[in-house]
Amino acid sequence: MNGSKPELADTYNMHGISIEVGGRGAWAFYTDEGDTARVVSENERRQGMMIATRTEDMFEVADCLVRFLAAAKKPWVVFSVDMGRFIRAYDPITLMRLTLDAPKAYDHRGVPLSKSSRKDALRLFSEYYDESMLQSLFRMRRLKADGKYSIYVVDGGFAITRLEGDTGLIYDIYVTPSKQGQGLGSELMKCALTSFAGRVSSVYLHTSYPRAKRLYEKFGFKAVYSQLGIRLDEVSLSPPTTK
Fold first, then answer.
1. For 134, phi and psi rounded to 5 degrees?
2. What average pLDDT does range 130-138 have in this prediction?
3. In 10 A of CB 51, how many CB atoms?
4. Residue ranges covered by each domain of the chain
5. Fold (CATH) for 103-200
6. Which of 38, 75, 84, 177 could be disulfide-bonded to 31 (CB atoms 3.0-4.6 Å)?
7. How far apart are CA 104 and CA 235, in angstroms?
8. Can you tell me the mean pLDDT for 117-128?
């Protein structure tokens, strides 16, 4: 941002767009992680960046990138906290990352998704993701087709996990409002952790809810950092002009 040559090493795993701001060139890079685009450049977590000649151009770069990702039907974009002032207009939410080393197994009531539980799971998917049953069916099929994901259900809730080499991700946990307060969140967490026990060295998840954070901390999770997320399918945006 000070006119020096930008450092573009290690961008081979990123996607990028170029933008013209007042006749000046600018760029934005992001890492594609399924439903989420990540623009994070915090120390070792180099998963995206924004580059401009002038600091004031960064607002335009961020706006153009958000519009580009929304037009590309990406549901989420996550930025590092130090980029917060450039995306303030989108009212980003704070996402806390929590990690747990050496997950252990528990007794629980959760079971893998099956033909008999699919109908109820689809209803819960539709409720949680705020989409039609048909859209939820396509979502479920995509997850099941990807061998990294697993879906577990209880009566009134579900958990989705993803295996990432030696690390596990608790992708989503949801309990329908009428069943909340009955311990189903704990059952689903026990189920998810049991699925990882002996298979990964650590597990991580993201949350923006203090109440959920307290539940996760009871299982030994510890907050390691915060980032900023924008739910793109909840904002109305026009496509960007990029080149």
1. -65, -45
2. 94
3. 19
4. 15-93+229-234, 103-200
5. Aminopeptidase (3.40.630)
6. 38
7. 40
8. 96
Contacts of 170 (CB under 8 A, 6+ apart): 159, 160, 161, 189, 192, 203, 204, 205
- Per the listing, tokens 């109440």 go with 211
Q: Is 100 helix (H, G, I), strand (E, B) or coil?
A: strand
Which two tokens mark 136?
Answer: 């939820």
Phi-psi region of 132 (alpha: psi -120 to 50; beta: other; left: phi over 0): beta
Task: Report which DSSP code applies to 219.
Answer: T
Query: Are 39 and 77 in contact, with CB atoms under 8 Å apart?
Result: yes
Structure token digits, residue 105: 């197994």
Would you report the helix, strand and coil content of the chain in percent, each value rounded to 5? 30, 35, 35
- Residues 55 and 34: their CA atoms lie apart, in Å, by 30
Q: Which residues contact 51 (CB under 8 A, 6 or more apart)?
A: 1, 6, 26, 27, 28, 29, 61
Strands 202-207 and 167-175: parallel
Cβ atoms within 10 Å, residue 169: 20
The residues with which 26 forms a beta bridge, in sequence order, are: 19, 52
pTM: 0.75
Q: Are 221 and 101 in contact (CB under 8 A)?
A: no
Q: Are strands 149-154 and 157-164 parallel, antiparallel or unpaired?
A: antiparallel
Determine the Cα–Cα distance for residues 243 and 239; give it in Å rounded to an integer.
13
Convert the pLDDT of each residue in 63-121 to its tens digit.
999 999 999 989 899 999 999 999 999 999 999 999 999 999 999 999 999 999 999 99
Pairing of strands 41-42, 45-46: antiparallel
Of the candidates 91, 41, 90, the one whose C-alpha atom is nearest the C-alpha of residue 64 is 90
Under 8 Å between Cβ of 120 and 136? no
